[in-house]
Amino acid sequence: MKRGILVLLGITGFLLFLAVVMAIWQVRHRGLRGAGEWSSPEYLAKLNQIRSIQRIKGTRPFTPKEMDLLRKFIRDPDLFIRVRAVTAFFWDPKDPQQRKEAIQLLRERLKDPEWLVRSYALHALARLGAKETVPDILPLLNDPHPDVRNWAQKALKRLGYQVK
Question: What is the mean pLDDT of residues 49-61?
Answer without folding.
Answer: 96
